[in-house]
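Write out the 3D structure for:
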Amino acid sequence: MMNHTLPLTERNHQLVSDAVAAAEAHSSGEIVTIVTDSSDDYGDVRLAWSAVASFMALGAIAMFPAFWTARFGAVLGRWNHEWDAPTAFALAALVATLKFAAVWLIQSWRPLRLWLVPPPVKTRRVHEQAIAAFRIGAERRTHGRTGILIYLSLAERRAEIVADAAINALVDESVWGEAMLAMLAHLRSGRIADAMVAAIDQVAAVLATHLPQDGPDTNELPDRLIEI
C-alpha cells in the first residue's frame, strides 16, 4: 500500500472523533473509522499494461514485417538490407523491451497509473483492504461482536462499511447505502472529515435502532480517525 500525507488537520480528526463518541453514546455498537490515501499501488496492473504494450509491438512487427524492417533499415543506414532470422529476432526483442520499459516508466506518474486501473479492480482491492483492516482492527474485538468499520480510500474514490457478526445478523448490507451516499456527496467537494461525519451519523441512526444502548457505555474500540 502506498502511504501519502492526507489533507486532514487536527480539527478534522477531532470532528470525526466527536461524531464517533456521540454515535456510540446511543448504541452498543462500536465504530472504527479509517482513511487511506490508496488501498494498493497496483503494481500488477502496471506490469500487465507494460506487457500488453510489449506484445502489441511484437504483433505489429509480425503482421507487417516488411514495413518495419524497411524503417529499421533506414534508421540503421542499411537500405535494402537482407534481414536474417537471428537479427530480426534480436531487433524484435529490443523493440518489445523498449516498449515495456517505456510504458512501465510512464505509469510512474501516479494519476495515469490509477486511471489505467479498471474500475472493478479498484472496487475489489478497496473491498479486500477494508476487510483486512476490519479483521485487524475491529472483528471480534468487542464483547458482543458489535464493531463496525467505515473505510474510505481516497485515490480510488471508494468507501466500504464492514460490520461484525451481531450487526450483520440484524442489518442487511443494503441499509448502508444511505451512509455511502452521504459520504460521497461531501467527497465530491473534497471535504473528507465532513464525509466521514455524515457516514457516522447515518450509521449511528441504524445502530441506535437495532442495537440501542442497554447499560454503561464501555469504549472497546478507539474513537479516533485512523490514517493508514
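Strands lie at 30-36, 147-153, 158-163, 225-227.
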